[in-house]
Amino acid sequence: MGSRASTLLREEEIEEIKKETGFSHSQITRLYSRFTSLDKGENGTLSREDFQRIPELAINPLGDRIINAFFPEGEDQVNFRGFMRTLAHFRPIEDNEKNKDPTASEPLNSRSNKLLFAFRLYDLDRDDKISRDELLQVLRMMVGVNISDEQLGSIADRTIQEADQNGDNSISFNEFIKKVCL
Amino acid sequence: MGPFLDFNPFDNLLCILLGISFTVWFTLLLVFIIVPAIFGVSFGIRRLYMKTLLKIFEWATHRIERGAKDNNHLLYKPYSNAIIAKEPTSLEEEINEIRRRGSNRDLDSASEFEMSDIFYFCRRGVESIMDDEVTKRFSAEELESWNLLTRSNYNFQHISLRLTVLWGLGVVIRYGFLLPLRVTLAFTGVGLLVVLTSIIGFLPNGRMKNFFSEQVHLMCYRICVRALTAIITYHDSENKPKNGGICVANHTSPIDVIILASDGCYAMVGQIHGGLMGVIQKSMVKACPHIWFERSEVKDRHLVAKRLSDHVEDTTKLPILIFPEGTCINNTSVMMFKKGSFEIGSTVYPVAIKYDPRFGDAFWNSSQFGMVNYLLRMMSSWAIVCSVWYLPPMTREEGEDAVQFASRVKAAIARQGGLVDLLWDGGLKRGKVKDTFKEEQQKLYSKMLVGTQEDRSLDTPPSSHLN
Predict the structure, then answer these.
(1) CA within 20 to 30 Å of B298's CA: A106, B1, B13, B364, which one?
(2) Do A1 and B121 touch (CB under 8 A)?
(3) pLDDT-flagged residues of chain B (< 70)
(4) Which domain of life is it from (chain B) (predicted)?
(5) What residues of B are in contact with residue A182 (Cβ under 8 Å)?
(6) ipTM of the assembly?
(7) How large is the angle between the packed helices A80-88 and A11-21, nearest 10 degrees?
């Protein structure tokens, strides 16, 4: 499996990814092995079908949205750097990072970047607002056919009512942060 | 007379030398390999070989580790570096945990939906992207130590001259000496099988024919075992399958058949192929009744079930050998057993096969290699080392249906072989997962939302339900 990838990851690349994402050397090697095993076409990039081949992801109700998060605007392929950049959001925040240099750019796995990732799962059109429709879409994905349109609509309305503070009937990123409160 | 005058005396010498070396070669082959195969005894050469190899591998891994430490970075070890920190919990527990952490207020008035609920699905999704339980079963297992084969190496950079020399030596031995030897043996074994079973086919049906057929099958499979340098340890042979039963085993490669059939006689089940396989299948069935299906008959489940049950009812016929997973899995787990063979109602003899991947990975990745390529890889590895456990026979209990019975047998095999017991279908190697699993998740989540709604609706007057 790993030896099929004739391009072993170069040391410089590993260092760059380490700096950008904060993963350790062995974590990066491990994820590279994972990347190549998913890359059935062996062309150094992953397509949406490659992700959908993972059964546990295919049965996840939000699977398609999560897969979408890996692909930059309008593109169909993601390379290893992009793959790692997205995964970096999920790296746990370590204690020794909390008191780092405040002028350095915010790490990918900061609390607010994690929340932005989740926000973007709702906000499909990237207008920085979660509208009632977008909320309904995500709700519908999570519950399938088990809840009626009306019930779902009232859940969405109630949620927006509770979260919306500036009265524009949609949820902005700041309102989202306050609501989620993690 | 002209050309003979130019006859070079060296040619003569060369011919004599070649003749002698061939004779010596074949005599050694006969004495050390074929004769023991006929009688089922062993000189112990293979085990000595295995012990030597192990010592060499340990040294090689040690060298690589030392080299890596000098370069100051950690080695990639597939199973020691866990990348996901999680414990398995249910959907409901985890979502409640997320909600509890997020809100300051008490959750007695459990709200029906929280925006933070997506974190659960989000995290599970990304975890499965980083590592999932299923897709890794369809490619060869990763090794913690290096066994001097480039095909299983992830850390190889030029660490030391000695290691590279050793590797080079390994290549020469494997491709120059072992491979030709094994190929010769393989041809011998298969050839003998075809010829002898056809001859036996002429005998009248009866005890003599069965006896000879068994001996011939055993002998040829033993030669094939030596052709692969397979070092097999059989455990609990008192549980070996008997006539009228069905033997089920986990499936890793076509070699499983050779391994089991060299220790006992089975009736094989399968589809008739063309080419060499077809020739072998047709001649085998002359000597004793195997169950071969035409391609068209394979789809007809009733026909298949009928032929299998007819066979097991006749106690003069050999036990059937079946691999219920339906496809090759990489020997780290056991996947869903198809229930067909468990519906027949005869005694099931489970067998667990576990390969030791350090000497050569036996898994057949059929999307990566064809059969011939695969066999060549097998024959150019160091050896195939495996353990076979014969488990005590099982029968279907009262009130148990075929699917539950299949799961019980699967769990027993997984436990004995030290394999992970998975519910996933091996068919996921090629096909998509069924939507019913996603719908189950959605149902579970909806219950969380709607469940609290129902409690709430008990307080409101009934009239508000009417619209």
Answers:
(1) B364
(2) no
(3) 1-7, 68, 71-89, 101-111, 143-147, 150-159, 451-467
(4) Eukaryota
(5) 101-102, 116, 119
(6) 0.85
(7) 30
Question: Residue B289: what are its φ and ψ, rounded to 5°?
Answer: -75, 100
Q: Where are the alpha helices (DSSP H) in B112-178?
A: 118-130, 161-172
Residues in chain A: 182
Q: What is the CA radius of gyration of chain A?
A: 19
Inter-chain touch A151–B126, beta carbons under 8 Å: no
| Contact check, Cβ <8 Å, B442/A27 | no
The alpha carbon of residue B427 and the mean position of all alpha carbons in its chain are separated, in whole angstroms, by 14
Q: Where are the beta strands (DSSP E) in A14-108?
A: 45-46, 78-79
Q: Which amino acid is at B152?
A: S
**Nearest to residue A38, comparing CAs of A68, A72, A10, A2?**
A2
Contact B242, B319 (CB under 8 A): yes
Q: For the segment B267-282, what is each residue's pLDDT rounded down to a tens digit? A: 988 888 777 788 888 8
Report the sign of the C-alpha dihedral through residues A96, A101, A102, A108, in that order. Answer: negative
Residues A34, B74: C-beta atoms closer than 8 Å: no
B interface mutation test: which of A34, A60, A71, A89 has the most B CBs within 10 A?
A: A60
As a dihedral over the C-alpha atoms of residue B228, residue B234, residue B240, residue B245, rounded to 10 degrees, the angle is: -50
Q: Shortest CB distance from B122 goes to which of A59, A66, A181? A: A66
> Tokens in use for B339?
């229930």
Q: B240 - beta bridge partners?
A: none
Interface test with B, best of A21, A30, A119, A182 (most B CBs within 10 A): A30
Q: Which residue has the tokens 């890889």?
A: B377
Q: Which pair of structure tokens corresponds to residue B349?
A: 């003899």
Q: What DSSP assignment string belongs to A45-95? A: EE-HHHHHT-HHHHTSTTHHHHHHHHS-TT-S-EEHHHHHHHHHTTSPPPG
Half-sphere exposure for A91 (CA within 13 Å, toward CB): 22
